[in-house]
Amino acid sequence: MPVNIPPIADLAPIAGIELGAARAHIRNPERKDLLAIRLAEGAQVAGVFTRNRFCAAPVTVARRHLDAGLGVRALLVNSGCANAGTGEDGIARAIQTCTALAEHLGCLSQQVLPFSTGVIMEPLPVERVIAALPACIQNLKEDNWLAAAEAIMTTDTVPKAVSRRLRLDGAEVRITGIAKGAGMIHPRMATMLAFIATDASVSRAVLDRLVSDACRRSFNRVSVDGDTSTNDAFILMATGCGEASVTEDGPEYAIFARALIEVTGELAQAIVRDGEGATKFITVEVEGGGSEGECEQVGFAIARSPLVKTAFFASDPNLGRLLAAIGNAEIEDLDVASVQLYLNELLVAEAGGRSPGYDEAKAREAMAGQEIKVRVALGRGGASATVWTCDLSYEYVKINAEYRT
Amino acid sequence: MPVNIPPIADLAPIAGIELGAARAHIRNPERKDLLAIRLAEGAQVAGVFTRNRFCAAPVTVARRHLDAGLGVRALLVNSGCANAGTGEDGIARAIQTCTALAEHLGCLSQQVLPFSTGVIMEPLPVERVIAALPACIQNLKEDNWLAAAEAIMTTDTVPKAVSRRLRLDGAEVRITGIAKGAGMIHPRMATMLAFIATDASVSRAVLDRLVSDACRRSFNRVSVDGDTSTNDAFILMATGCGEASVTEDGPEYAIFARALIEVTGELAQAIVRDGEGATKFITVEVEGGGSEGECEQVGFAIARSPLVKTAFFASDPNLGRLLAAIGNAEIEDLDVASVQLYLNELLVAEAGGRSPGYDEAKAREAMAGQEIKVRVALGRGGASATVWTCDLSYEYVKINAEYRT
Known about the structure:
The structure is a homodimer of 405-residue chains. The first copy, chain A, has helices at residues 57-68, 87-105, 126-138, 145-151, 204-216, 252-273, 292-304, 306-313, 319-327, 360-368, 394-402, and strands at 17-22, 34-39, 44-49, 74-81, 112-119, 160-168, 171-180, 193-198, 201-202, 222-223, 233-238, 245-246, 281-289, 340-343, 346-350, 353-354, 371-377, 383-390.
């Protein structure tokens, strides 16, 4: 059961983006597992990809096609099979699916970006993907974001989609996006898969900056289990079919960037809230750091620690494990006497030990909630960073002992 | 249930080392939880300690006393309370126990090294420790290593002790050691606690080198859960009461160092075999690396991955998770096409994907064993490293959700 994911409401269609889903019977015949996204001519696309050295074949091909600079006319996404750890044959299969979709849409194979998520090291059943393309194309429509979010799910228990409308210089701008991911979630890139579109007109250079800024503060700030997937990708599309445009030196940039980070942040948090076996959602706020980087280090030392995560699961205010995790963040000159630790608004540790006013009953109450905030004041400077994570439960072990990713 | 820990046999007493254990009723009144070790005058002592910034009070005091250079006449170890996250008060309490033992033994407080393991952030019950000292001292004898190993246990299910006899230049030399630790186990120093003694005569400088070499290849090569404790320490004592001596430039150095690494290696492996919730013991051999360091990186990327560890638990030959972990080892220029992956002696992946001769039934058989060897050939050079780990089971979550460390 996901932890307090807000209901999906009002997914604004994006002019210039059509989405179509179909059943390709890749793994689960019961649901749609293939998604095509068609982009209007002239749409700009930017993306960030996994840095895992064993990156999946579709990641290699998508990156190559994006770099070719011929423009992007379509995305093709399948769930159920990751086409990862499949060597040269996997690359060939990913390209075959691009070519087939390109033929249907009348564009070049290099104008299609492929994405896959699901079981690793199984060959992609190309013939089934190709056979389902006509149904996908027939299903293409602008008002299809929810179906798209459902088609890319794997161990996700709910679809993840977020939308924002904002005004830039008097014109309405829309941002709508979907994401999937529940396990193998750790930064060093995006989440598993996220596709976000806007109808604003944005140059590729500005889009590159937006995608990296937004990723850094959202998808790169979550951890479910500390594992980085072979297939992670976050794609941002700007169709330019709306009236507004975003340039780097205009005042619209900051407004648009903020709205985009709201969308990516909500999607990133939804992934953690739907984390495998999660029963609690934990926000780790680290402040008073010498740099944003060291605040992230502390945040992740907490978010990655199995001992901290099992304590959250048990609603146990095990301050020692939290302090030990902070001490493991590899900040060589950290003065532990200056560190303050809060559970929600409760000061629980300071001066290297338990706070004099510490109240076990209140701390236990804070740990019992489904939403827990851990705040660490490092007392070293003015930088801060927030990281989101979930607890580690029996269910996580069960899901991952049973599901072959 | 620990995984195949060899029975403890023939723990050779070390001339110049007496051990005494008693019940101090720190946490569990049912068993001895206080250990004093008395060293003959002139014994040399070296140690490595946790690098966790929130290191425990006894670690701070032990390091300080060791650095004082006044010689070490005794060690005092308690289980049940870690005296960590206890600020200045914790330091004062650790010193109080040293002073009390020093008075009994007629030595200086600075000649006593304190060690604690158990629950974090609870004040050390100094009065109970001090009250139990006479019983400890009365119990002091050379032939007491097993009782000592039992007295330092926390979540350990079995005591850990290893002994070796070897001959150096015609004279018999003995090495005997004990260790404790089952969770919060990850390198960047020693295991939780290990105390090893020899009757050889070894200078402090040579002892320093021996302790760091042995630690690097044993206690620093194991991971249960990726967490580094606040209390880790590995102490090596050389009484010089035997006939042999070890000098850095003599041929005895290599012989002695090899025997010491056998002892520390067996203790380190015993800790993993007794890892919290462990049902399998996994040896990760990484070879063909450009450096020993990058081989360790790959080994730990595998040993730390919760997804890999749950797959071991499930006996699932999930090669994708293994490849993904290798890809996450942050070796920037790793050519995944050159990597070969073996389960036991079975070649299962090569050229970026599954091996052509892959046989799922055989791979499943390999994963079903209690002892699994993962071998990774990087194809980049001649360096190698071995890391030991265990699987991640329901039981790990249960133990850590219930026990407040």
